[in-house]
Amino acid sequence: MSETAAQFPGEMSEDGAFVRQEDAFRDWVRAAPGATFPAAAGRYHLYVSLACPWAHRTIIVRLLRGLEGAIGMTAVDPIRDERGWAFREGRGHSADPLNGFSFLSEAYMLRDPAYRGRVTVPVLWDTRTRRIVSNNDDDIMRMLETEFDAYATRALDLYPVPLRAEIDALNERIFTRVNDGVYRAGFATSQAAYEAPARALFEELDALDARLATRRYLFGEAPLETDWRLFVTLVRFDAVYVGHFKCNLRRVADYPNLSGYLRDLFQIDGIAGTVDFDHINVTTTVPTTSTRRASCRSARCSTSRRPTAANALRARASPKNAQVGALSRCAAYCFGSKYQSGSVAGNLMSLK
Q1: Given pLDDT bands bounded at 50, 70 and 90, which one contains residue 284?
Q2: Which is more confident, 154 or 81?
Q3: Region(s) of the chain under CATH 1.20.1050.10
Q4: pLDDT tens per residue, range 288-344
Q5: Where would you tag: which of 45, 59, 69, 285 has the fewest CB atoms within 10 A of its CB?
């Protein structure tokens, strides 16, 4: 198999492996008195992309904690060119209401005029000092979870103290093998660099499916931080990663417990409204003047639950959630099968 061109040449190893760049800005908002960046309502703003799974995590935590009134949010245009993420008016995205930036790179240049890395989302912006606080999604999630209690309208603990060591350990494993694993497979430019992360990805999905056979969520009866970190990858998996990133050994729809778990999380109040397949699809595929949308013909496409103990628990999540209506029943089950155009047969690389 011939090598393929690198999507991000500055983040590739000599053997064709994708090595994600480190996040450049990692200051911290704290509720403690005297903090450099003190927690406050109305002071901080999130710049996000509805297409990006890393930004999606922060959107979900902001929603679940009821921080919409305390922390503003602006979504960028999902269509990027060589200038990067842009602020434009459109469905689900807008111009920058705070600074009048045309491109998110302008915020990076204000923070560090010498910055030459890739401009990424999410960004937590301080409106008072007019600088980026953080562009690290892990840190932003944790700040929203733990430092804004005084301004949250929902008392929800996504990072409970007794489970923190276990949460951190599983977070790291899922990040390496699943969240970033799909990118390390999809952006690899050689067969050898592709196969290792692709195999590790499906080994981990197999293990997670087995774990979910005996529990509703990863740590028991309630979804925690780790569940939402996994959710943003699973919800894109069949729509994007199976074909576009060549992660095609199995679909999420082929896993009885993972697929039920995904539907369960999707039907939690408000979550469906954070999932925008139009933005996801246009960002992760080559833009065309017309996006093909094939109807789903999957024999597995059904709203019925698989008869496992964990899915019996998940049956309590009502399939009549009003926001599920934003997608068809097909999309609510297959998560994007109607958005999938073409088959995986034409992939340049595949597992053997």
Answers
A1: low
A2: 154
A3: 161-346
A4: 333 222 223 233 333 333 334 455 445 544 443 333 333 323 333 333 332 233 333
A5: 69
Looking at residue 141, its amino acid is M
Coil vs helix vs strand at 93: strand
User: Which of 18-22, 143-147, 272-276, 284-288 has the lowest average pLDDT?
Assistant: 284-288
Joined tokens for residue 203 = 């080994």
* Integer-rounded Cα radius of gyration of the chain: 20
pTM: 0.82
Q: What is the spatial distance between Cα 329 and Cα 235, in angstroms, rounded to a whole number? A: 14
Separation of alpha carbons 262 and 209, rounded Å: 11
- Every domain of the chain with CATH number 3.40.30.10 lies at 29-146
- Which position among 47, 108, 183, 255 bears the catalytic label? 183
Which residue in 24, 187, 38, 50 sits closest to 108, CA to CA? Answer: 24
**Alpha carbon distance 27, 24 (integer Å):** 10
**CB-facing half-sphere around the CA of 239: CA atoms within 13 A:** 29
Beta-carbon contacts of residue 13 (< 8 Å; ≥ 6 apart) = 19, 193
Helix, strand or coil, per DSSP, at residue 48: strand
CA distance 309 to 91: 41
- The residue-averaged pLDDT of 102-128 equals 96
3-class DSSP assignment, residue 276: coil
In the Cβ-directed half-sphere of 220, how many Cα atoms lie within 13 Å? 6
Domain 161-346 in CATH 1.20.120.1220? The answer is no
> What pLDDT does residue 330 have?
33
Is there a catalytic annotation at residue 52? yes
In whole angstroms, what is the distance from residue 334 CA to residue 321 CA?
17
Each residue's pLDDT tens digit, 155-193: 999 999 999 999 999 999 999 999 999 999 999 999 999
Cβ atoms of residues 101 and 76 within 8 Å:
no
CATH 1.10.260.40 holds for 29-146: no
Of the candidates 44, 47, 52, 296, the residue annotated as catalytic is 52
pLDDT of residue 48: 98
Respond yes or no: is residue 183 known to be catalytic.
Answer: yes
